[in-house]
Specification:
heterodimer, A: 180 residues, alpha/beta, Pyruvate-ferredoxin Oxidoreductase, domain 3, 6 helices, 36% helix, B: 400 residues, Rossmann fold, 6-stranded mixed sheet, 13 helices, 15 strands, 42% helix, 18% strand, globular
């Protein structure tokens, strides 16, 4: 079983990222759960969302304490919360940042493996808004392979309708531009 | 054809209600409400469900409108949660006495205060003695399936009582997971068309809800109690028929590795899945642990429960609500009462866990099983014990 935690700020689409990941996995015939960190929703405040993916039926309702993967949608969260908290020793942090993995490691003391993508720039260039959730999904899939890039397309189209293509463009650019 | 889709449990529940082709959905549309009602209002607005959606001004009115609509012969659905259920209470009490088959889904959440929006069973336990059929779901598939089953149960002329289908707030209501959704044709092979047994009709006038003089009141209450007790047979029949139709089999009490277990974990609702994972873990250590899960809470399935725990030494009974100053939590009270007169009965150690959104983890189940065995060995039987309380473990470690 793979457990993923998404960090973002209210309004950036962390919850949507989690949902789309789970829907894509279920579309592949796997089992998955997606859930937000339940609480009052406030735009701009740090939020988290969670995904479990498994080849077997998932029989737990625990929160996720030791994720295999952490995805960070907003680079300004790095100085505020410990994004790598509880991360498994072989885990990976997928990060929206302009900086290189080495710069991030030295600046924030993160010891985990890192995958980075300048998702804000990609989102601005492809969609004209700094909403980075679908871009980070590209980075997540590129760096971890938890689901196939193809299986994200249908849930993404269903969710975004007329703006799905722009989101897919951002997603594909992240597939190409993520370094890890 | 039924298809397995990733879907939020609340939306799947609304889909079951759509398949049941309800006539009236009266609901308070603001918090504490779930996406169940939001989605139903949308289905009605888009013409996908031919029903009257009544956005009332409070839950008290929601249940009043539900009873009025059911009395007029409509198939009625509503949903609520926590404070909303509490505000409904006066009319909730009235529904079984009127013998009106309303289906209500309750996303179980804590009652304030302190103010909480999170999951526990304090809302539903405050409605325990209202005379409704009450059933608890473990996962999203059960929410979908049992919502359908609920309509057939309550509209059966042997029952004619309202039902609450309980699902854990947030833990289930906001969870996206794979659920097999039936199509209309399939649902229609199981669901009976609605036909009100009794209804207000100007051509055949009748009275509902008259005064119960002391000469009749006890008899009316006894009749309601008999109807509720008798509903168990209908619940069992409907679960059986659902299983035969769709291959998903449900019982009023479920067990997991309970045969020959020395310790039984007793649960209701979605923590049962985590409990099973904990049991698998403890079994690898050689601990003889099993699970008994109560699905049908009202009427309480006494014989099935007693049979399920037979031979166990101790039951770690988990409550999700506090009975302040009482002898046990609501579930443990029932369980002790069922077992009291039986020779060779298991001891019942009662843990109150998972209040107001506090997680109940695999490790918590391991701790509860250990403590239950410890108490049994020492011959100590506390009425109930809240677990996972900040500072308590340190205090215990010091005193040891």
């Amino acid at each position: 079983m793979i457990e993923i935690r998404f960090h973002g700020r209210g309004g950036q689409g962390a919850v949507t990222s989690a949902e789309l990941t789970a829907l894509a996995a279920i579309g592949e015939g796997k089992y998955a759960q997606a859930f937000p960190s339940f609480g009052p929703e406030r735009r701009g405040a740090p939020v988290a969302a969670f995904v479990r993916i498994s080849n077997e039926p998932i029989r737990t309702r625990e929160k996720i304490y030791n994720p295999d993967i952490v995805v960070v949608l907003d680079p300004t969260l790095l100085g505020i919360i410990d994004v790598a908290e509880g991360l498994k020793s072989n885990g990976i942090v997928v990060l929206n940042t302009k900086k290189s993995p080495d710069e991030i490691k030295s600046e924030f003391g993160i010891k985990a493996r890192l995958a980075v993508v300048d998702a804000t720039r990609i989102a601005m260039e492809t969609m004209g808004i700094p909403i980075t959730n679908t871009t980070l999904l590209g980075a997540l899939i590129k760096s971890t392979g938890v689901i196939s890039p193809l299986s994200i397309e249908e849930p993404l189209k269903e969710r975004f309708g007329p703006i799905a293509q722009k989101n897919l463009d951002a997603f594909h650019r992240a597939l190409a531009e993520t370094t890890f | 054809m039924a298809k397995r889709v990733g879907i939020e449990v609340s939306i799947a529940c609304a889909e079951a209600v759509r398949l049941a082709n309800v006539d009236v959905v009266p609901a308070y549309p603001i918090t504490p409400q779930t996406h169940i009602i939001e989605d139903l209002s949308q289905l009605v607005a888009e013409g996908e469900l031919d029903a009257a959606f009544i956005p009332v001004e409070s839950e008290h009115s929601a249940m009043s409108a539900a009873l009025g609509a059911a009395a007029a012969g409509a198939r009625v659905f509503t949903a609520t949660s926590s404070q909303g259920l509490a505000l409904m209470h006066e009319i909730v009490m009235l529904a079984p006495s009127l013998r009106l088959p309303v289906v209500m889904v309750v996303a179980n959440r804590a009652l304030s205060g302190p103010i909480s929006i999170w999951n526990d069973h304090s809302d539903i336990m405050a409605e325990r003695d209202c005379g409704w059929v009450q059933i608890f779901c473990e996962n999203g598939q059960e929410v979908f399936d049992l919502t359908l089953v609920a309509f057939n149960v309550v509209e059966d002329e042997r029952v004619l009582l309202p039902i609450m289908v309980n699902l854990d707030g947030f833990q289930l209501s906001h969870m996206i997971e794979p659920i097999e959704i039936l199509d209309q044709e399939e649902a229609d092979t199981y669901l009976r068309p609605h036909k009100a047994a009794f209804r207000l009709d100007v051509d055949n006038p009748t009275s509902m809800g008259p005064v119960g003089l002391p000469e009749y009141f006890s008899e009316a209450k006894m009749a309601a109690d008999m109807a509720l007790k008798g509903s168990k047979e209908v619940v069992e029949e409907e679960l059986k028929r659902f299983g035969e139709t769709f291959g998903r089999h449900y019982n009023v009490v479920e067990t997991y590795k309970a045969e020959g277990a020395e310790v039984i974990i007793l649960t209701m609702g979605s923590i049962s899945e985590t409990a099973m994972s904990a049991i698998d873990k403890m079994r690898t250590w050689g601990k003889k642990v099993g699970l008994v899960r109560i699905r049908l809470w009202r009427p309480f399935p006494i014989e099935e429960f007693v049979a399920a725990v037979k031979g166990a030494e101790v039951i770690a009974c988990i409550d999700r609500a506090v009975t302040f100053g009482g002898t046990a939590g609501p579930v443990a009270s029932e369980v002790r009462s069922c077992l009291y007169h039986l020779p060779g009965k298991p001891a019942v150690i009662n843990f109150v866990a998972g209040l107001g959104g506090r997680d109940v983890t695999v490790d918590d189940f391991v701790t509860m099983v250990d403590r239950a065995q410890h108490y049994l060995r020492k011959g100590i039987f506390p009425p109930y014990e809240l677990i996972n309380i900040a500072g308590e473990e340190e205090k215990e470690a010091e005193s040891a």
